[in-house]
Amino acid sequence: MSRRVAVVGAGSSGLVCMKCCLDEGLEPVCFESSDDIGGLWRFKENPEPDRASIYHSVIINTSKEMMCFSDFPIPAHFPNFMHNSLIMEYFRMYVNHFQLAKHIRFNVRKHRQASLSHKCGSSLQLTVSMCVADPRPEHKEEIRLFAFWSVGC
Ligand SMILES: Cc1cc2nc3c(=O)[nH]c(=O)nc-3n(C[C@H](O)[C@H](O)[C@H](O)COP(=O)(O)OP(=O)(O)OC[C@H]3O[C@@H](n4cnc5c(N)ncnc54)[C@H](O)[C@@H]3O)c2cc1C
């Protein structure tokens, strides 16, 4: 059985974290409190409580050569300093290319995690409890066991 890694947040950090897990033969399960990827870079007309928000015209101040994922170049026809909509487009290309979507659980907020508490064979596993924003009964509260967890937020 592959070792599962809890990744918290599907912003740029969480996305690359999932991809690195897959490279290492680990199984990422990403918990994203909102209903989409992108984190800070997903512009919303009506900002959500507790979430930082960019404004509509924001252009990133990091060049595409500096900010791109090292194994997934930003398309040549994208400008060097991208508008936030192109950053989101790039993130979606990354998710599609590495087939990350199936590993993401949306509308799930990591609420707390217990301390290392469970021994399974030779490895310690972590109990993660989550409080869920989504009303679906099967997602009300969930306790899962993970070998590791990583905060991508
Ligand atoms: C105002 C501002 C301007 C910036 N401008 C630039 C810039 O020009 N260039 C640059 O390179 N960087 C900039 N940054 C830095 C920015 O933080 C990074 O570019 C990038 O967004 C960090 O990605 P992240 O995945 O770590 O966090 P985020 O993009 O914040 O994503 C975190 C994700 O985790 C989710 N999440 C949070 N808590 C939980 C929880 N408890 N359970 C489940 N999910 C959760 C959130 O919904 C979100 O989707 C800026 C930051 C700010 C605040």
Automatic annotation (TrEMBL):
Molecular function terms, GO-annotated: flavin adenine dinucleotide binding; N,N-dimethylaniline monooxygenase activity; NADP binding
Source organism superkingdom: Eukaryota
Cofactor: FAD
Similarity-based family: Belongs to the FMO family.
A Pfam family reported for this protein in Swiss-Prot or TrEMBL: FMO-like
SUPFAM superfamilies assigned: FAD/NAD(P)-binding domain (SSF51905)
Name by which UniProt lists this protein: Flavin-containing monooxygenase
EC number of this enzyme: 1.-.-.-
Keywords from the named record: FAD, Flavoprotein, Monooxygenase, NADP, Oxidoreductase
Taxonomic classification: Eukaryota, Metazoa, Chordata, Craniata, Vertebrata
Cited InterPro entries: FAD/NAD-bd_sf (IPR036188), Flavin_mOase (IPR000960), Flavin_mOase-like (IPR020946), FMO-like (IPR050346)
